[in-house]
Design goal:
The protein is built from twelve helices and no strands. It is an all-alpha fold.
């Protein structure tokens, strides 16, 4: 079940990234990331009220720090990723960002987690598939800035997964509420200090709303997934989000896929199946 929730999380996250990447070509990436966090904050307040998790007897020390750390990592990763997508080639940015899975994978293994042999095989196949499906470009000149930003995004996303998993041991809802509250506050403060909302317009609100809902939904699904399985295992299906982004670009924007990308999609799906079956 944990792997399934992580897979659903990747679909939601990949869809959000596709929409955000497209909007970031017209508006400031920082503004898009910040606005999506504010939408997520509203969604989490509603979730908190509906679930009445605020009344649960959960010590604040078990989730507040993790929520704040997840906020810093998540918002920083989004800004770096959206900026990289808006200034660099998706075929360079996405494969690098997808390698962020190595962070929670490594943390899980260092904590003594022991995936089955079948799951280890699935992890290797899935990660390789995600990188291939992202359409890695190995020819042509690539600027250093988008590559550096993609690396920053990968590390930040990996740390976000680790922090969210740690807080979810106490409460996913409370951890995510703290995370979104912190992110929304930082976004609002940044907008006030800059005296700008990055060129966002009223017409962008529907798209920003969808991005925010998909993003927070992905985070919640992954948080719950980490409570149902090993972090080193459930973190891998989550990384399928670049595959979703690439497939949406192919279906909506009519971007052509390379032969290696078709192989990568198939391999990623096989890897997830092996993980779930293990």
């Amino acid at each position: 079940m944990g792997a399934l929730l992580a897979l659903l999380s990747s679909i939601s996250w990949g869809s959000a990234d596709f929409l955000a990447g497209e909007l970031s070509r017209r508006r400031a990436a920082v503004a898009v990331a910040g606005a999506s966090q504010i939408v997520g904050f509203v969604v989490m307040l509603l979730a908190l009220l509906v679930t009445a998790e605020w009344a649960a007897d959960v010590p604040a020390a078990d989730y507040v720090v993790w929520g704040v750390l997840a906020s810093v990592a998540g918002l920083g990763g989004l800004i770096a990723f959206y900026t990289a997508l808006s200034t660099g080639r998706m075929g360079v940015v996405s494969p690098i960002a997808a390698l962020g899975v190595l962070v929670p994978l490594g943390v899980g293994l260092l904590r003594g987690e022991a995936p089955t042999g079948l799951q280890v095989l699935g992890i290797v196949v899935a990660v390789a598939g995600v990188v291939l499906a992202s359409g890695p470009e190995v020819s042509g000149k690539v600027g250093a800035r988008p590559v550096i930003l993609a690396v920053v995004a990968a590390v930040a996303f990996g740390l976000f997964a680790v922090f969210l998993a740690a807080g979810s041991e106490a409460s996913t809802i409370l951890t995510m509420t703290v995370q979104r509250t912190t992110s929304a506050t930082l976004a609002i403060v940044a907008a006030v200090v800059a005296g700008s909302i990055g060129g966002l317009q009223r017409a962008d609100l529907p798209q920003l709303g969808v991005i925010g809902v998909l993003d927070v939904g992905a985070n919640l699904l992954f948080g719950f997934a980490t409570t149902l399985g090993l972090l080193s295992v459930v973190a891998v299906p989550l990384t399928l989000y670049p595959v979703v982004t690439v497939l949406l670009a192919w279906a909506v924007l009519k971007e052509r896929l390379l032969p290696a990308q078709y192989v990568g999609v198939a391999a990623a799906l096989v890897g997830v199946a092996l993980i779930a079956g293990g």
